[in-house]
Automatic annotation (TrEMBL):
The protein's name in its UniProt record: NIF system FeS cluster assembly NifU N-terminal domain-containing protein
A GO term for molecular function: iron ion binding
Transmembrane segments: none
Gene3D superfamilies listed in its UniProt record: 3.90.1010.10
Pfam families assigned: NifU_N
InterPro entries, per database record: NIF_FeS_clus_asmbl_NifU_N (IPR002871)
NIF system FeS cluster assembly NifU N-terminal domain boundaries: 22-110
Organism domain of life: Eukaryota
Lineage of producing organism: Eukaryota, Viridiplantae, Streptophyta, Embryophyta, Tracheophyta
GO biological process, one term: iron-sulfur cluster assembly
Length: 111
């Protein structure tokens, strides 16, 4: 009996569940997402992208409003169905693209 208890104690001591930590900016964008919503899809200045990740079930719709004369993205909106990091990254993406030229935004990668 004593061996069984000692054995169980050793097993429980070896198993350690580590908490997951996200950067404070990720938590901030999850708790206070920026630019949530959508534009009128019939507006000719609005472009819409829809992406999904079948592995985890996340779906993101990102819309940008582009100034026709300058090519500058004047506003961005998103709607995301998914985990906290998907919501946070969608929020960050809208912040990144606003005020940039289309050519510059096309260089953004996911790495």
């Amino acid at each position: 009996m004593l061996r069984q208890l000692a054995s169980k104690r050793l097993i429980t001591q070896r198993i350690q569940i580590l908490p997951r930590f996200y950067h404070e900016k990720v938590i901030d964008h999850f708790n206070n997402p920026r630019n949530v919503g959508s534009f009128d899809k019939n507006d000719p200045a609005v472009g819409t992208g829809l992406v999904g990740a079948p592995a985890c079930g996340d779906v993101m719709k990102l819309q940008i409003k582009v100034d026709d004369t300058t090519g500058e993205i004047i506003d961005a909106r998103f709607k995301t169905f998914g985990c906290g990091s998907a919501i946070a990254s969608s929020s960050v993406a809208t912040e990144w693209v606003k005020g940039k030229q289309m050519e510059e935004v096309m260089t953004i990668k996911n790495t």
